[in-house]
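re: ur msg from earlier - yeah i can do the aspartic acid complex, just paste it... oh wait u already did. ok heres what im feeding in:
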Amino acid sequence: MNEGLSSGVGAFLHQVESRLLELSREAQRADWVYSTYISPDSESLASRANARLIGSTVELAKESTRFPGVRSSPEEKRKLALLRLALPLIAPSDPSESEELTSLVAAMQSAYSKGRHTPLGATEPVDLQALSRILRESRDPATLEDAWTGWYRVGRGIRPAFTRYVELANRGSRELGFTDTGAMWRSKYDMPPDAFSSEVERLWEQVRPLYRSLHTYVRKRLRATYGEAVVPAEGPIPAHLLGNMWAQSWNGLYPILAPPGAPSEFDLTNALVGRKTTPEEMVRYAERFFVSIGLDPLPASFWERSMLSRPRDREVVCHASAWDIDFADDIRIKMCIEITAEDFQVIHHELGHNYYQRAYARQPFLFRESAHDGFHEAVGDAVALSITPEYLTRIGLAAADDRFPDATGLLLQRALEKIAFLPFGFAVDRWRWRVFSGEIGPAEYNRTWWETVREYQGITPPGERGEAEFDPGAKYHVPSNVPYMRYFLAHILQFQFHRALVRAAGVAGPLHAASIYGSHEAGARLRTMLELGQSREWPDALEALTGERRMDASGLLEYFEPLRRWLDEQNRGERAGW
Ligand code: ASP
Ligand code: SER
Ligand code: ZN
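and the outut:
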């Protein structure tokens, strides 16, 4: 072992970590101000801070190639590898191109956040939240189509910036030795990028039959609601009828899809509204859950600095997110909370991020990340799978005489949220990877988007969507440069986590009825994984929680097994697929 060289790496990494920590804090603060107060000034300050962070990261990553890997410790090697992968966006080293790129992303995000449309019969333009409510609540196809089309218009203004962003982001990724930005994103999983593509393909094949059954059932029931002229017996389902702007989760449709003859049921949204629950109280429910399994209460600064409601007087980025401002204990969420069952879940999702961030805060800076990004997205969702009727009754949100759906109904609700999501979660980056690789050019963005959506989701847009539109731009993560495969992985991992946590808690019975609320054993197991951060390859982290080293959908399939059998019965005589 060559002492001199090894300590050379050590000193270099020390410098890297303190420099990037400082620049990351600066960028987080600038991004926070921008996201909670969009203005030309905050947009410019945030893009400059990000350009500085990216610039230093690239410089240091290039410098790191000085150190021949054989002479460094495994921990140092891992840090050197992670340095190149730390950011989802790498700009070209040319300073003007670098600032152009970060400005493009900020501008795309602003355009998205400012999207408005005046719904049919209304006089004032409304935002995405209000349009989403129409998608969820209206049963009038014309109203639905108008809200859908009105929102998707936002993509038009994003297209030119997106085209240039693809070019510059690729140029940056290539400077770091990746073939393109998609390949860079796929390199973050402790395996070669091609192996990762096969891995997600394998997982998709595991769950595809269940999605197809759900699709067949939903199409049949929607046909009964809207008639054969609106929902044909075969082929894809029109996107505006699924209760969600991107048809990514269909739980808004539960009232018309519920098992026939189901009694009228407990509605969490009504319960929350009935109690005049405030946004802060919504978050308190979720915090108490994490505390019940042995984690610490959130710091006072969380309550002082988080943004929990949409401010009336300015534009903000409403898309929910969790923040790690100083990589120590200044954790926050930013969310325009609505008093709904859906946001009740999303809050658990966001706090999952915050508890992860806090648990790995004692790791060296380059390890202050989740095992892989799917883990980050899965933690809060796994916890939220413990929101069962029994739990809601126990905490007093439901009364003893409230009537809940039977197992089939509960599982159908969950499936409309989680199983419906799978092909969407898979499709977004199937499309973006091909855009970054150049396989899809700007002249075919929109056609290929809908081909992808149709292939995986079995969904079709209302009406013709030409190349004047840019429909992927109507989904937050595209203008905001957030990789999306993480959500697909998380929707599988969360069931794997849930099964392990339920076992650790010693709770018996079917997975869908089990809650880990109050279990310190489950909490301790979870914490072991969270505290590892990114210090080890993700199979080690997965093993710490589940005892398993492979991502696997068998937890999900076990959870939904009773529903699968029921769907098969319902679908008898229907033609499955599209
Ligand atoms: N809940 C949002 C979503 O997953 C944002 C997040 O990831 O925290 O897109
Ligand atoms: N939060 C992610 C989204 O909004 C995944 O559910 O798409
Ligand atoms: Zn998330």
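cool cool. Residues 320-322, 346, 349-350, 353, 377, 487 surround aspartic acid (ligand 1) (CB under 6 Å). ping me if u need the other ligands too
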